[in-house]
Write a structure and sequence with these properties.
Length: 263
């Protein structure tokens, strides 16, 4: 593997990562829209790669890639993104799916019933942190995936911002809030009560789950845009035998690992 693009289409953002061998050159985010046209995606992806290259005046010949791997949970734009990436790199990208080798044993999970984004996260976590490991991806939803020698199970919970949005939308007097830092376990007004409920509450849920698994030297790997807000609340509730880490680029690293395995 020399130079590749890894692209993850999530419900909220499209994350682009550029790799030179094992070095991550850059990551960038594009807002996810389900009605993108192929030409729009090409323009957005091309501009992202060009803008983040070492020389902003680079030409097409400087944007050469040996390949690309796409993961997507938004089927409306998956094929369009594959086409756009092919226009950029000159060859068809790999598409993350059950037909690719991942290095992750999912035989203990119901067939076809685990999202590929969670498998990708776990590919990176097992490679970097070993097992047993629990990956907590705090995005639109909070997904928790646990593996020992194989993926043993997990949880899907409402995400932090999704919870705040639902509270505001489904009640008459609760305000619309954006997730932010929580310094105190108990709030002293409506807004701080809501924020503590979703931030500290999520952290305590994760730390309590980790303790109940009884895996001894378990590693918790937190990723996703809101992970940094929750990590302190996870660490507060953990015994010394359980370590917690934050890895902003876990999924992008997992795509790189899987690309390497399959090429």
């Amino acid at each position: 593997m020399s130079r590749i693009l890894t692209v993850d289409i999530g419900n909220s953002n499209i994350v682009v990562g550029s790799w030179s061998y094992d070095a991550l050159d850059f990551t960038s985010r594009i807002m996810t829209k389900r009605d993108y046209k192929k030409d729009e995606l090409f323009s957005l992806l091309y501009d992202t790669v060009q803008k983040n290259s070492a020389d902003s005046s680079c030409t097409d010949s400087d944007l050469l890639y040996d390949g690309a791997l796409l993961a997507s949970v938004v089927p409306e734009i998956t094929d369009k993104t594959l086409d756009a990436l092919e226009m950029i790199i000159g060859k068809r990208p790999l598409l993350m799916g059950p037909f690719l080798r991942t290095g992750v044993d999912i035989s203990g999970y119901k067939e076809g019933a685990i999202g590929m984004d969670r498998v990708v996260d776990m590919a990176a976590a097992l490679s970097m942190y070993g097992s047993p490991v629990m990956v907590c991806d705090l995005g639109t939803c909070t997904t928790i995936t646990v593996a020992t020698d194989k993926i043993t199970g997990g949880m899907i919970c409402p995400g932090i911002q999704l919870s705040l949005d639902a509270e505001a939308a489904r009640t008459s007097q609760l305000p619309q809030l954006q997730a932010g830092v929580v310094d105190s376990l108990l709030g002293t007004d409506t807004a701080s009560n809501m924020m503590s409920g979703v931030i500290a509450g999520t952290g305590m849920m994760i730390s309590e789950l980790a303790k109940r698994l009884h895996y001894g030297t378990l590693k918790i790997v937190v990723t996703g845009g809101l992970g940094k807000l929750v990590l302190p609340w996870i660490k507060q509730g953990l015994p010394a035998t359980i370590e917690a880490y934050y890895d902003e680029n876990l999924l992008i690293r997992g795509l790189k690992e899987i690309y390497s395995i399959n090429t």
